[in-house]
Amino acid sequence: MIEKAKNIIAELFWKFVLILVVYGVRTYLLVVYRPKVTYLGKSVQSTSLKEPMIIIANHTSMLDPLMVQSLFFHKRSIVVAKDQVEDPHFSWALKRFKNVIPCDRFNLDTEWALLAKKELEKGNSVIIFPEGKCRYDGLLNEFKTGFAFLARSTGAPVLSLGIDGIYKCGHRTQIVISEPEKIERVKGIPSSKHLAERSEYFRQKVWELKQMALGTTGKVLPVAAETPEEVIPEESK
Fold first, then answer.
1. What pLDDT is attached to residue 85?
2. What is the mean pLDDT of residues 130-147?
3. 219 closest CA partner among 112, 138, 107
4. What is the DSSP string of 169-214?
5. What is the rounded distance in angstroms from the CA atom of residue 77 to the CA atom of residue 69?
6. pTM score, whole prediction
7. For residues 99 and 235, which has the higher predicted lDDT (pLDDT)?
8. Taking the CA atoms of the chain, what radius of gyration do you get in angstroms?
9. pLDDT (tens digit, 9 = 90+) per residue, 35-53?
10. Between vectors from CA 89 to CA 83 and to CA 90, what angle results, nearest 5°?
11. Cα dihedral 121, 192, 181, 58 sign
12. Where are the domains of the chain?
């Protein structure tokens, strides 16, 4: 009985710590990096969304997921790599987050999509970074098709974000948000070809939004099959 009471007290303590961390990190990001959000469409003019959506963005920095969650702070979940959830450095926090959806990025995993579908049904938006990992050379990795499958099977609109990925004191992180789009909902299992085509379409769209966030024009992103692998400097390995 005493041991059970200790466990309850310990869990309440960690939940309290987690709340402090969440609000502390959010305050830090919003105050230090002062994100400036530009809306291109008419139906979405706020991060308080009127309906649940699948939110996708480029992944240039480890701060991107924290920033997107800080902006879309209410009624949202996020897909996180399962290996990060199980990492001892992050597991104490991530396993206590009810809004974290683990996804095995190295093996075939469908469970995350079922969990994400339940979140959408509950009225929560789902944040996904389709590249699956950060890319630091300015290009975008191939978009994994999971978000397209989820959008097509649920009918939830896809909200695309372009983030400049610059997190420096004195610089306002720029984020451009487009008009949400739907991928036609059909019965049965969608073809892999169609999902790949839609993923590439949204990859190019996010690229354009990112260029707008960076204030650059004219840079073309090769299709995924022709995009070179990122070269990681030796000192970063």
1. 81
2. 95
3. 138
4. TT-PPEEEE---B-PPP-SSPPPHHHHHHHHHHHHHHHHHHHHHHH
5. 8
6. 0.90
7. 99
8. 19
9. 999 999 999 999 999 999 9
10. 65
11. positive
12. 2-229
- Identity at 35, one-letter amino acid code: P
Running DSSP on this structure, what letter comes out for residue 159?
A: E
Tokens of 81: 């790599």
Region at 125 (left for phi over 0; alpha for psi -120 to 50; beta for the rest)? beta
Confidence of residue 97 (pLDDT cuts 50, 70, 90): confident
For helices 111-121 and 146-154, angle between their N-to-C axes, nearest 10 degrees:
40
pLDDT digits (tens, 9 = 90+) for 73-92: 999 999 998 888 888 777 76
CATH of 2-229, one of 3.30.980, 3.40.1130, 3.90.1720, 3.40.50: 3.40.1130
Sign of the C-alpha dihedral, residues 160, 46, 77, 175? positive
C-alpha–C-alpha distance, residues 158 and 180, integer Å: 5
